[in-house]
Amino acid sequence: MEVFRGVAIAAAALLVVYTLFASYNIDVSNLLARDVETHKSTLLEKEPHCLTFEDDMDRRVAEASNVVVVMPPKASGSSMIAFMNHCYPDNGFEDFTNLQRYMSSSLDLPKVLSRHTSSDTDLIRLLKNVPDDFLVVFVYREESDRKVSAVKMIAQSRFCDGMGKHFLKEPTMTKNETHCVIEDEEQLLQSTVGKGFYEVGPDVNSILSCNTYDAIEITNPNLMMMNFRQVDQLQPILAKYHCPKLLKRLPLHTNIASNKRDWVYVRTRENGAEVKLEEWAKSKKQFLDWAYNTDEKVQKFCRAKTRKLQNEMNRCNDQLIDLRRNEV
Asked: Is residue 53 a part of any domain in this protein?
């Protein structure tokens, strides 16, 4: 009898231990699951998320004391600068490097500023030093698309049309009333992509450098990023709050390729054919950075982060994302 009683007690004890152990495992599993989900949600909150112009951009502009719109060359900068100059005539703003002199140019400084940025230094200085109610909008253009547009502009405007003074070595050209033929395509590539000056020069990867991303991480600025093709949606919102008389004249476009004279051709080395500049540039687009190793000058390379932001932005209907984290 005592034996049976001992066995029963032992069995009961084992059952209690098993029950406690099973309960413990369930609690641990639930706890781990909750931790994973919490970690995921925290990461998601730190990821860029889609915004709309109608609601989010409108609200952020309304709440901001000032708006600064920055972009690399060939990312609708000329159109945005034209907008600023019409919104604030005679504003006297030249570029981001002359801010100290600009401070004493007027008692009432413009609430909207727009300029090309030529380096990560200008952008980092902006992000690190503006107050919380400053809204910064970075206008983005995919680099291979931006660069080929820059090559076309230099070939058309600076070489064939003779726009402004420049120190680039011009390729051999033949001109008549209807054609400007660039006779050596290698000369054209060397004087544009090879040199990296003017519009070709400061590319997206040197502006959105690792140092720039470090500054964003450290300062968590009031920063949005948008596709350059969406500036027509940005202008009316800025005008609504800062220069409503301009609304009927929008959108403002300058330096648009479709408005330029279609007379530039490139003679190919392959067979000596004259090919329209647009067709020639399109055929070279995907190889420009690779062939000329244009990112060699970028000391800290963070293209993966830029590609991730680009993909996030392109998945959004308005191609507008928020780079300000809700929680740090």
From this structure: yes
Q: What is the pTM for the complete model shown?
A: 0.81
- 40 and 156 in a single domain? The answer is no
| Cα distances (angstroms) measured from residue 85 to each of 90, 210, 250 | 7, 32, 13
Instruction: Note down pLDDT in tens along the chain; length 328 residues.
Output: 554 455 455 555 545 444 444 444 444 344 344 444 443 333 334 567 899 999 999 999 999 999 999 999 999 999 999 999 999 987 878 777 777 777 777 778 889 999 999 889 999 999 999 999 999 999 999 999 999 999 999 999 999 998 877 788 899 999 999 999 999 999 999 999 998 888 898 789 899 999 999 999 999 999 999 999 999 999 999 999 999 999 999 999 986 666 678 899 999 999 999 999 999 999 999 999 889 886 665 556 799 999 999 999 999 999 999 998 754 4
| Structural domain that includes position 170 | 47-322
Note whether residue 157 is domain-resident.
yes
Say whether both 24 and 52 belong to one domain.
Answer: no
Query: Rounded distance, CA 188 to CA 176, Å?
Result: 19
User: For residue 285, how many other CB atoms are within 10 A of its CB?
Assistant: 14
Whether 328 is in a domain gets the answer no
